[in-house]
Amino acid sequence: MPATAPLAPDRFDVDTPALLVDLARLDRNIARMNTIAARLGVDLRPHVKTAKCTQIARRIVGGGTGPVTVSTLREAEYFVADGFRDLLYAVSIVPSKLARAAALVRAGASVQLIVDDVATASDIAVAAQREDVTFEVLIEIDADGHRAGLRPMDPRIVEIARGLEAASHLRFGGVMTHAGASYGCVGAEALRRHAELERSAVVQAAAQLRTAGFDCARVSVGSTPSMSFAEDLSGVTEARVGVYVFNDLVQSNLGVCTVNDIALSVLATVISHKRDTGRVIIDAGGLALSKDHGTAGQAIDYGYGQVCAIDGQPLADLRVVEVNQEHGLIAPRDASASAAMFAALPIGCRVRVLPNHACMTAAAYDTYQVDDGVALQRWPRCNGW
Amino acid sequence: MPATAPLAPDRFDVDTPALLVDLARLDRNIARMNTIAARLGVDLRPHVKTAKCTQIARRIVGGGTGPVTVSTLREAEYFVADGFRDLLYAVSIVPSKLARAAALVRAGASVQLIVDDVATASDIAVAAQREDVTFEVLIEIDADGHRAGLRPMDPRIVEIARGLEAASHLRFGGVMTHAGASYGCVGAEALRRHAELERSAVVQAAAQLRTAGFDCARVSVGSTPSMSFAEDLSGVTEARVGVYVFNDLVQSNLGVCTVNDIALSVLATVISHKRDTGRVIIDAGGLALSKDHGTAGQAIDYGYGQVCAIDGQPLADLRVVEVNQEHGLIAPRDASASAAMFAALPIGCRVRVLPNHACMTAAAYDTYQVDDGVALQRWPRCNGW
């Protein structure tokens, strides 16, 4: 713990809790992933569900109009309204959602959908025809049993592709997977193996389709941990990565980044000293930090967040150990450091808290306070459905 | 599990995920707490942090303009803009927040603040004078070591009251506590004892103050579990209860309500069948349900929510066992019930999910879909800070 009280530069003079972005770190994270993608020879289709912010998405895609990946139709609508034109909606589509997706195509966007079910693909074909709008559709592959999708050699993959190609308003576009179990990997070797598992799953599915006579133009993978550790992505055309723009404590535990690469933090104010229980209380609780405790089973359990001084320097011993709706309770890992904690964090001072899971924490805010080193800029984000 | 597929009444034809309120249950929950308060002889100062919605707050206070409790200044601003005039901001105040609070007083509201620190009370006195606005201030008492506040016999309580009374722009109003450890109680007897612990803590603090010559007009408690089980609130003047308006699975585990008293649910659509892993996937994930797993240590672990048919009937065996950002994975408690689950929940059908913690789940939405039994009304809610 530093001997001096945290700095309080004027540029952090905003109401708390607030969502801070360190612009230099953001840009560094973006550049690093661009380098990885170039080395591996794949295009990026960044998943903008993490930041849900046009200004950040533009920085990622170098000022263009896509390609991006979205997780909700509201995101899709937000990004299309702001000029993006090439979107993959990476959650299984159902017919009741097709009218909203069709409106985006009519507005000039290319919207790719995903399916993993024969009957649903057929229902989508009917709905697309009714909307008189054409969609490209990818088939979701399950690489690791994590979530949705068909196993790579499932014969229904070919059956779905056949149905898509036969439909008047659908076009079969390829295969995609999300190897979400990479988040559970421990160690670089396990992550390298998982990246290869992800690659081989979609490449195998693509081979099955090509053998059956289908062109399988897109072969898409997506997870920040597996992309960060992949050694070879032969046969893959694009990667949908999201959380790398901010990084977070879960990613740092995985070895994707260091704690000093985390570009997102919650600015909070110390509001109470609870000396008898050894807790410093801040005005960022379960809503401001999220209740995601994703580091619970990892190498370092950060509770609900790593506490930093206002200048971003981690106060290594201090974490948010408990949250109520609007209260965060900070304690030292070493209880004998309580006195130093109270001295370093007087009531009224400000701290920054690094999040376990950037996507979840950011979702509580409608605005980013973007720190360019001189002043804070306000960038909006899109939430909800 | 019912043999028939869930009903799909037209009135639930909204995009999913959506936040549903069962108006009949809401009104029943409000009436029940009013009866409890009347029996115990205390006023209610409902905590509107749960619903953050004018229409619901008005139903609670019988159409009046307060009194209410808020957890953020944005809530305070929202409710004052909608005509509420008597608010307690129940999170320790710090000087940097006083300007926003003062603006509310200038707008015609009475805003009560809370403190638990001698130096901070003194800083607040200076800030209030600078704003030239008068606040009533309560002293926070710690009943159970749960969060903030001073222990009931701490001599600093009198010292703070003295400072408040001496300040030109502050007025000492009384004492308040939140016995949040009631959420960890198991069984009715433990909850009754905890309610008495909460009562005796503030009453003891008030007695200390009166002995020292202070009028201690307000003696305020607040927690839905302790209020629901309290047998006697002698000496208490008001109760700040919040989550009872909706109730949730945590409250049902505590015995505060039954599952059929839960007025809040998330409407979701089944988007994928993952037969090999035994999961039905819905479009309500960690953002739509929240990552609050408050039932984890309770009698019944509901995962991330209890799954119900569209008519609200719990499908007792089914819960959301895992969440990603926009995916919720449903599984039966009894794995042999998988086939029945897939049959009951076809892709495209709708379900409702009861939340672990209503306050956290509701916070992801800007709108309630309020079901009055005939149609859905849209009621806005206020989020953020």
Task: Sum up the structure in keywords.
Lyase, Ornithine Decarboxylase, Chain A, domain 1, homodimer, 385 residues, 2 domains, six-stranded antiparallel beta barrel, TIM Barrel, disordered N terminus, 31% helix, alpha/beta
Architecture overview:
Two copies of one chain form a homodimer. By secondary structure, chain A is of the alpha/beta class. Chain A has two domains: 10-20 and 257-380, D-serine dehydratase-like domain (Lyase, Ornithine Decarboxylase, Chain A, domain 1, Beta Barrel); 24-243, TIM Barrel. In chain A, 31% of the residues lie in helices and 23% in strands. Chain A is built from twelve helices and 17 strands. Chain A has helices spanning 23-40, 54-60, 73-81, 98-106, 118-131, 156-166, 188-211, 224-229, 249-254, 286-289, 338-344, 358-362; strands spanning 18-22, 43-44, 68-70, 86-89, 110-115, 135-141, 170-177, 218-221, 238-239, 264-274, 279-282, 306-308, 314-323, 328-332, 350-354, 367-371, 376-380. Chain A has an eight-stranded parallel β-sheet with strand order 2-9-8-7-6-5-4-3. In chain A, a hairpin with a 4-residue loop joins β10 and β11 (279-282). In chain A, α5 runs parallel beside α6. The longest helix of chain A is centred in the middle third of the chain and has 24 residues, at 188-211. Chain A is elongated.
Mean pLDDT of chain A: 95
Q: How is the biggest beta sheet of chain A arranged? A: 8 strands, parallel
The strand count of chain A comes to: 17
What's the Cα radius of gyration of chain A? 22 Å
Identify the CATH architecture of the largest domain in chain A.
Alpha-Beta Barrel
Q: Which outline of chain A best applies?
A: elongated
Question: Could you say what the CATH topology of the largest domain in chain A is called?
Answer: TIM Barrel
The amount of beta strand of chain A, in percent, is 15-25%
**Number of self-contained structural domains of chain A:** 2
Please state the oligomeric state of the protein chains shown: homodimer
Q: Name the CATH superfamily classification of the largest domain in chain A.
A: Alanine racemase
Specify the number of helices of chain A: 12
The most extensive interface, with participating residues per chain, is: A-B, 61 and 61 residues
Q: What is the C-level CATH assignment of the largest domain in chain A? A: Alpha Beta
Helix content of chain A: 25-40%
Main-sheet strand order of chain A equals: 2-9-8-7-6-5-4-3
What structural class is derived from the secondary structure elements of chain A? alpha/beta
Which sequence of SSEs, written as H and E, runs from N to C of chain A?
A: EHEHEHEHEHEHEHEHEHEEHEEEHEHEE
Instruction: Report how far apart the termini of chain A are.
Output: 42 Å
Low-confidence stretches of chain A: 1-8
